[in-house]
Amino acid sequence: MPISDNHHYLLSYYRTGEITGALFFGRLAKMMRPGPIQMDMTKHFADEAAHAHYWTEAIRRLGREPLKLRDSYQDQYNEAIGIPVNIMETLAVTQVFERRVINAYARHERATNLDPVVKETITKIMEDEKWHIYWIKNALTGLEPEYGKDHIEETIKRYWLADKEVYANTMQEHEERIDEIMKGRG
Amino acid sequence: MTTTAIGVKTRIAEVLNIPADRVSEEISLKDLVSDSFLLVEMAIELQEDFQVRFSQEDLKVVHTVQDLIALIEIKLSSK
């Protein structure tokens, strides 16, 4: 049986977000100077692209085609958060965003009667997402001598507050859809 | 025109892949850069080239290429 419209939308939304992430990290990886951040950023880019492929494949296995969605969650960021202007700010905003992604996937994974295809895809992606948080945290620690520990922590805190605002202002429809899925009605 | 101004304009032209003469000092960055990611890229490249560091606060008052040149000159002079 094909997935519901709610699920179809959400999985397509995840796919769009992963594509946006891949494009962002791909461009960043391309401009990075050689070093550990360049290496990890390149893997991060490749992971996000692979995730977009996993969702495309999953949606098709579930009997639908991915929806062509214009905006992703990341697109809402620039307006509320401002453009990150250095590598530390870029990593800080990414750390906040990746935590938001992990929370969203973890919540979805707990849904009642979750289709095994969706569960399998989320589980596979979550492994990479955990590594994303890990490498970004390490990279930010490595930038402490240059930017200052306090300044980095303040930046992350500022982005957390902005993230909450973006989520509250833009994700009402998403919330309603995920609520239905959590109740096993999606 | 100062050496910094020439360097900044040249680098902007390279990052945006446009002729250097399109980068006038009066032009606004919004008119010059349509893609917000290119702004990120440009900001990071300029900081690396000139060995300075911007914050979001610094860039709030930067609207034109001239503002950007002035910011870099201030940063360089305070090093």
SS-based class of chain A: mainly alpha
Quick one: CATH superfamily of chain A?
A: Ferritin, core subunit, four-helix bundle
- The percentage helix of chain B is 55-70%
| CATH topology description of chain B | Non-ribosomal Peptide Synthetase Peptidyl Carrier Protein, Chain A
CATH superfamily of chain B: ACP-like
Helix residue percentage of chain A = over 70%
Terminus-to-terminus distance of chain B: 21 Å
Tally of DSSP β-strands of chain B = 0
Q: What number of domains of chain B?
A: 1
Order of helices and strands of chain A: HHHHHHHH
Description:
The complex is a heterodimer of chains A (186) and B (79). By secondary structure, chain A is mostly helical. Chain A has one domain (5-182): Up-down Bundle (Ferritin), CATH 1.20.1260.10. Chain A has eight helices and no strands. Chain A has helices spanning 5-31, 36-61, 73-81, 87-109, 116-142, 144-147, 149-170, 172-182. In chain A, helix 3 crosses helix 7 (149-170) and helix 4 packs antiparallel against helix 5. The longest helix of chain A has 27 residues, at 5-31. By secondary structure, chain B is an all-alpha fold. Chain B has a single domain, classed as Non-ribosomal Peptide Synthetase Peptidyl Carrier Protein, Chain A. In chain B, 65% of the residues lie in helices and 0% in strands. Chain B contains five helices and no strands. In chain B, helix 1 packs antiparallel against helix 3 (36-50) and helix 1 (3-16) crosses helix 5. The longest helix of chain B is centred in the middle third of the chain and has 15 residues, at 36-50. The relative contact order of chain B is 0.20. Chains A and B meet through helix 1 and helix 4 of A and helix 3 and helix 4 of B.
